[in-house]
Amino acid sequence: MDQARSTISKIFNGEPRSYTRFNLTQNMEGENSHVEMKLSSDVDEELGPSGGEHLNQNQNHMRQSYLRHSKRSPKNVCFMVIATLLIFVIGYLIGYLAHHKQDKDAAICAPAFAGSDDNEEPVQEEFEPTLDWEDLKTLLKNKLIPDRFEASFRSYGLESHEAGTAADEKMASLVYSSFKDYRMNPWHDEHYVKLQSLSPSSPNTIKFNGEVIGTPRGYAAYSATGTAEGRLLYAHYGMDSDFRSLQDRGIDLTGSVVLVRAGKLSFAEKVANAAKQNVHLGSGDPYTPGFPSFNHTQFPPAQSSGLPSILAQTISANTAAKLFDKMSGQNAPSTWEEGGLQGVIYKLGDINDNVTVEVNNVLMEKKITNVFGVIKGFVDPDRYVVIGAQRDSWGPGFAKATVGTTLLMELACALSEMVKNDGFKPRRSIIFASWSAGEYGSVGTTEWLEGYLTSLNLKAFSYISLDGTIRGEWKLKNFEQNTILLFMPMRTDDASYPFLAFSGIPSISFCFAGNRGPDYQYFGTLEDTRQKLEYIMSTRTTQFAMAAAQVAGHMALRLVHDHLLRLDVSKYNSKIRSYVSQINRLVSQQSSSSLKNLNMQWLMSAYGSFSRASSDLLDNIQNSDLTDVEMCRNINDRIMRVEHNLLSPYVSPKDIPFRHIIFGSGSHTLSDLVDHLNAMRNNMPNASVDRFRNQFALATWTIQGCSNALSGEIWEKDNQI
Question: pLDDT over 70 for what percent of the chain?
Answer without folding.
Answer: 74
